[in-house]
Amino acid sequence: MEWPLVKSLLWALLLFAQIHEHRGCIEEERMGLIELKAFLKSNIHYTNHLLLPSWVNETKSECCGWEGVTCNTTTGHVIELSLYNLKQETDWYYLDNSETWFLNACLFQPFKELRSLNLSVNQIGGWRGNE
Do residues 87 and 45 make contact, with C-beta atoms less than 8 angstroms apart? Predict the structure, then answer.
């Protein structure tokens, strides 16, 4: 009779450890993503859609589930940002060079474990100095 109780307690302990091991979005990185979105909104002239609608400034929002964001499942740090074609251009090979803009490099400082960054088809002309 004691073994089923011990087994149940071990399962409960294992489940508890698994739940608490998973870390969600790191607050500093969530705020970094919100700042990045604000910068992108002010520099990308989009017309037919909302820009990154899942990126919301709510403390309970889990940024690891936001579109284009991939996190390390153990640490919760952002490891990949896929921000390809934010304007959702269908004829990207006809892009107007007058809409070229420059990205501020310091926007990526909060992401300590960022390993992959896809910014293609966004008409980025280069990098600005840190501001």
Answer: yes
